Amino acid sequence: MTPADRGTIPALIAVSILLASCGSNEPRDGAPSGEMARLPDDAVPRPEPRSRYGNGPEYEVFGKRYRVMEDGSNYRERGVASWYGTKFHGRLTSSREPYDMYAMTAAHKTLPLPTYVRVRNLRNDRTVVVRVNDRGPFVHNRIIDLSYAAALKLDMVDDGTSLVEVTAISFDEPDGDRPVRRTTAAPWPATTPAADADHRIFVQVGAFGDRANAERRRSLLVRGGIAESFIDADKAARPPLYRVRIGPIAGVAEYDVLVDRLAALGIDDPYLVSL
Questions:
Q1: Using only C-alpha atoms, what is the Rg of the chain?
Q2: Which of 176, 186, 217, 239 gives 20 to 30 Å between its CA and that of 29?
Q3: 117-160 pLDDT, tens digit each
Q4: Strand 76-84 with 144-147, pairing
């Protein structure tokens, strides 16, 4: 993970050191050799001061500039989550806290450090709360990098990535989250909960009040070689709503390809829908 500081010379040195650590001579990242005896509880959201480190206002990695949000309270995004483990365990995060792969933490490119977020696996509806204290992932089409423990709780360790929804937790609203979660360790589940349904996931590329506009969007997709698209007509809505969707998609690999194909058609705001 690459820290982003306030433009000071020490910060630039730190960035260079951590980027160099990603070289080919470094060991590959992965899971620990032994199983965890118990799953950790979710992070407990609480108001915290903004970290002195990793909060920009801007930083650059691999030739791309990122601007840190002033306020992430309204942040919600769907996309691809990845996770990081043994290779970075014990190393300093962007907030200068040691990375603990057994803690409920995460890395994000632009949310303020720290920020608490709720991450939902769109495939199985498992949800975790993590504390964002690091920067990354600096990989195309990835929105959050989870700790090993968080990925384990979302059942995405084996796949390496998953389609997720990430929602920032705000303390400004009267009914916002408060630290009321239990503090005792959760036992390791003997079996996958029956509630873990395998949801079908679609990519939505437009919602229109006029069916003709929806037909034009779908025609654009077909001309671009995306034939597996359709119009979902919600006639119960007033006025009726016509959503253009693609899928269902099999997983992250197919989603990555689809995002690039949509970008080539000038569609840069696809939205994941889990049914």
A1: 20
A2: 186
A3: 999 999 999 999 999 999 999 999 999 999 999 999 999 999 99
A4: parallel
Distance between CA atoms of residues 16 and 36, nearest Å: 33
Mean pLDDT for 21-33 is: 68
- Overall domain count for the chain: 2
Q: Has residue 248 been placed in a domain?
A: yes
Q: How far apart are CA 252 and CA 54, in angstroms?
A: 29
**137 Cβ partners below 8 Å, 6+ apart?**
82, 84, 107, 109, 144, 145
Q: pTM of whole model > 0.70?
A: yes
Q: Say yes or no: 39 and 141 in one domain.
A: yes
Residue 190: what pLDDT? 39
Looking at 157, 187, 217, which one is the last position of a domain? 187
Q: Rounded to the nearest 5 degrees, what angle is found at the Cα of 132, between the Cα atoms of 121 and 69? A: 105
DSSP letter (8 states) at residue 100: -
CA distance 98 to 83: 16
Q: Which domain range does residue 66 map to?
A: 9-187
> For the stretch 106-135, what's the b/e string if a residue is b when 16 or more beta carbons lie within 10 angstroms of its beta carbon?
bbbbbbbbbbbbbbbbbbbebebbbbbbbb
Distance of alpha carbon 190 from alpha carbon 181, whole angstroms: 22
Above 50 in pLDDT, residue 183? Answer: no
Q: 19 and 75 in one domain?
A: yes
pLDDT tens sequence across 41-74: 999 999 999 999 999 899 999 999 999 999 998 9
Query: Is there a single domain that holds both residue 41 and residue 174?
Result: yes
